[in-house]
Amino acid sequence: LAAGSYEVYMTANGYAPSAPRTLTVTNGAATESTFELTPLDRQFGYRVIMNFNPGDKTLEKVNIQEMIGAADGRTYPIGSGGFAVIDFGDSVKNITGVDFAVRAGNGLPEGYSVEVAKDWTGPWTAIDTVYGSAAFDLSVKSVDWFRYLKIRDDGDGDTLDPDAGLNIDAVEYFKVQDLSAPSAPSAFTAAAAGFDRVNLSWNRSSDSESDIATYEILRDDAVIAEYRDSLFSDYSLLSGTTYRYKLRAKNSRGVYSPYVEVSVTTPKDTTAPKLLYAYVKDSAAIVLRFSKQLDSASAVNLSNYSVSGGVTLQGATLLNGSMGIVLSTSLLKAETEYNVDVTSVKDRMVPPNIASGLSGSAVYMPGLVGMWRFGTVNGDTVYDESGKDHHGALLAGAKCASDAGRAALTLDGVDDGMVVANSSSLNFARKDFTIACRIYADTLRTKMALVEKAYNSLGFRFLTSDLDADRIRFVRGTTFTTGVQSNDLSLAKRKWIHIAAVIDSGIVTMYVDGAVSGSGPLAAVDASSSSDLYVGIKGFASSSVIPFKGKIDDLYIFDRAIGQQTIIALAAGSDTGHVGSEFVAIEDGSEGVTVSPNPFNPSASIYVKAAAGFAGKITIYDINGNKVIELHNGAFQQGLNRFVWDGRDHAGRMVSSGVYLLNVFGSGKTFRKGIILSR
Fold first, then answer.
1. Cα distances (Å, whole numbers) of residue 299 to 273, 287, 324, 437
2. What are 54-72's pLDDT values in tens digits?
3. Predicted TM-score of the model (pTM)
4. If 0-12 CB within 10 Å is exposed, 13-18 middle and 19+ buried, where does residue 132 land?
């Protein structure tokens, strides 16, 4: 404001205006003044949310606001046959006697009807038809309360008359003089839910004069929440600790009830921290996620960690929330799996629980935005091990079960599945990307869902073909005519098969067990950010896709087109990295094979678990099918047998880096596994 003197007064809905006051404003300074308004016994219309004037009198329409606020002699004509819907902004209660009134302008009284509703869309209850200014009692129509008032002119008059129809000066309702407190919440209970959470519940309060606005919750005399519901969960608590909670209700007039109080003790946590999963954050950092909060001193102690492959540790940082660690490392190699060992890490209990002998693995794969290996599960949550936190939710009883040492998503073909909420890094709108997974079909049918992110014509589906159940098809949206399918009739029941689709500049290339199996052009996929990712079940309700019956494992999604060597490595299983030594059955579960480390340099140990009398041979081939070396041919000892390949061929020459195929044959069965030599 320019310097000078001003006459100022204050108004507010439901209060008497203040008396004018002269205030002086000076340059470079603030002028402050306090106004205290006197409450009235009534409140007025808050806003007009709908208006229809049949005469379409533009000049009058700019004066719509004359209907709100206190009566002041300035009116708005709603027109012959017109109507207005006015929001009081608060509940108009049915009190004793008159509840609300319409104040009409001076002149010949006009006829109109009045309706009320709790929602502006209705349903509407007719109260009365009257002339001129009138007062109304809700008890006549047994209405307990309303918020919205509809006033409709009776249509008796010339629509072109500038002042046609009812002239509304104000609408008002008579406020409840609420000085009493609401009742205190009853049946207030607190129950420990695990070591670090308490669930609170109570019966709602009541107030005969006002609405209950919120409930104020205190823990140990400190306010922790203002809440509207009657159930509340308090998280991130300490185990073995007693907490005192207080609760009170507040009505819409700001009056509080008395407190109610309850105490609860969380159970003592005697479990050591668990390593949930590990992932590579970038080329020089590995992140470890734990099951509980860690003691900071032990968590950042580098001597408590070791990483395979000659990786040196340069630092450790505790993540926010104290349930994760970032290990700064020497340079990591792309498409390489690293084993991480953890020891002597403590939690925050007193005395602390100590974790020792934990191990996990992390794979450095640039462009990886989703990795679900179904071995790291917490209840119905499947952890995303890519580090992007795209954790999946199991649907309708789907479970992650072990199959011959392989943890896999097991689906019943009825309604089981997994859903991953969308995020920006899973938005592949008109971008290159890659999907790869391993499947085991209990039955083969057309259009069985594997992975999809689709809605109407948008997005994509990766599924069994609509033409041949033993082919894989990648389609855009819901139109099966715009898709690319594998060439080979490669699927078979009850057999693990690796499949992949690479989208690169409008060309889709299909892979089966690491080999190219079809390609073709496809219109740009627009996997919009609004759609979730579904695994094993369709996400678009009206499509003809059916649920998958079988198992899905090692689901990887990249935000780019990856090369065939990476596809081969995924198909070979060199990245499986599940914690512990797991054996894949050759025949009936009595024999098994594993390789460690993988990738390797300079040598890899090949373990064969054999039953009595088992005989066979172990051979290494290159990716073109040429024999590199035969490591064993004959009988195996009962139990665990170990063989070492030092990266040399049958002539003792060092072979080059790359993917090789381990072939173990015995008892009429063949086991194959890809292994990677990384010099």
1. 11, 12, 9, 34
2. 876 555 556 788 888 888 8
3. 0.51
4. middle
